[in-house]
Amino acid sequence: TPDTPESVQDNQVSVAAPQTFTIVTSQRRNSGFPCRTCDRVFTREYTRKVHEEAHATKAAGPLRCREPDCNTTFQRSHDRLRHEVRIHGHEAHTCTICNNMFSSLKSLQRHHCKFSSTQS
């Protein structure tokens, strides 16, 4: 309005905007965007969509879990190994420097960790 001083208009806008932002942010944080496949919850819908696409890629992967009653498949062998260790309790051999997991001790021994200062 023309008879309202400009400083009052600015003050009204700057007070209302942060309150609205805080309410929307806290509501989104409480509800989040849950993955429809697993129990992860994301703060952004886009991040959830990208994550869910990874589930779809795993489902179409050529590497099947080696557990007899599990039909989960993966594109990458390290994803399959991580699944087998976490879900089915398989043993893994882990590099103490970079935490990469290997299914056999021989594979771990062949591993040349890029973070190691004593590479041969």
Tell me what the structure shows.
- This protein is mainly alpha-helical.
- It has a domain at 30-110.
- It has helices at residues 6-31, 45-59, 77-88, 105-110; strands at 33-34, 41-42, 63-64, 73-74, 93-94, 101-102.
- Strand 5 and strand 6 form a beta hairpin.
- The chain starts with 5 loop residues before the first helix and ends in a 10-residue tail after the last helix.
Determine Rg (CA atoms, Å).
Answer: 25 Å
User: Tally the helices: what do you get?
Assistant: 4
Strand content: 5-15%
Give the uncertain stretches in residue-range form. 4-18, 20-29
> What is the count of β-strands?
6
In short:
The chain has 120 residues and is mainly alpha-helical. The protein has 4 helices and 6 strands; from the N terminus they run H-E-E-H-E-E-H-E-E-H. The chain starts with 5 loop residues before the first helix and ends in a 10-residue tail after the last helix.
